[in-house]
Amino acid sequence: MTGAGFYHCSVKSxxxxxxxxxxxxxAYRSGERLEDARTGEVFDYRARGGVLDNFILARTDAPEWxxxxxxxWNAAEQAETRANARLATELELALPHELTPEQRKELVxxxxxxxxxxxxxxxxxAIHAPGxxxxxxxxxxxxxxxxRMLDENGxxxxxxxQRKDIxxxxxxxxxxxxxxxxxxxxxxxxxxxxxxxxxAGLDIRVDHRSHADRGIEQEPTKHLGPAAAGMERREPGSxxxxxxxxxxxxxxxxxxxxxxxxxxxxxxxxxLAAARQLAEMxxxxxxxxxxxxxxxxxxxxxxxxxxxxxxxxIDAAIQAEQAxxxxxxxxxxxxxxxx
Length: 339
Description:
CATH architecture of the largest domain: 2-Layer Sandwich
Structural class: alpha+beta
Low-confidence stretches: 163-167, 172-178, 288-309, 328-339
Order of helices and strands: EEHEEEHEHEEEEHHEHHH
Number of domains: 2
CATH class of the largest domain: Alpha Beta
Helix content: 40-55%
Mean pLDDT: 76
């Protein structure tokens, strides 16, 4: 049975409008000491801990100084003169805890390189460990991507026939409004994660769509609060609110399991129907490649059958989730004292 992995991919702009420094952001993400040449401020985060790895990715013809973090981000700062300039785009990615550190690095590198090559930009990647008081599975990456393109001479001021804000600048400026570019990146991350799971031999997949978009009504957990969170850290299972959340998580797991069973059953039925259709076509008109005296007949479209099967699978999954959720609600109502 295919398991559901955890998916997270957020995209946001980093700019001067809110007083932020891209040099400070890069220092914090990478856990290094950097000086902002524009303001003279020094940001030293070498003692913060939790940074598992950091590296810079750029196009092959980028100058060597791009790989020196301090020079790189100061150059990005200096390339923008407006007080409210957008300096970078930040991606935050949840990395699969089921993979090895090497597999996680390979995954995020392949994904970021695709962005680098598509937009002609450079990116600073930092892989972070889970917080000491958080979920031990929360391994994640922060990716700071320059808004400007680079060539062998550095950041491009303006290319012939292009606006000044090229590279990811246009992405940050116009596409955040309609969400198309963000959706494209979220889909791309889903594909990379699922490919990494498959290559690792793991029967786990993620979906970039929200539960609402998939028609899944999962019950939200309750906020623990400082006191209950502290109790749970010291002794798991020691707080009433933690017990409530464990019950909710069990019910949600049951919903997902039932949906997975329905998906498997529906997929098997769809594949069987497609196989029967193919067998019927071959018995009537001969196998593909064989000569036949029968009149020409429509060729069986495996891709179309597969797409139809996938649509049935998705519909069945949504219906199964909703039915299971309704059943769970019914059981809760039966347990009320006034029943």
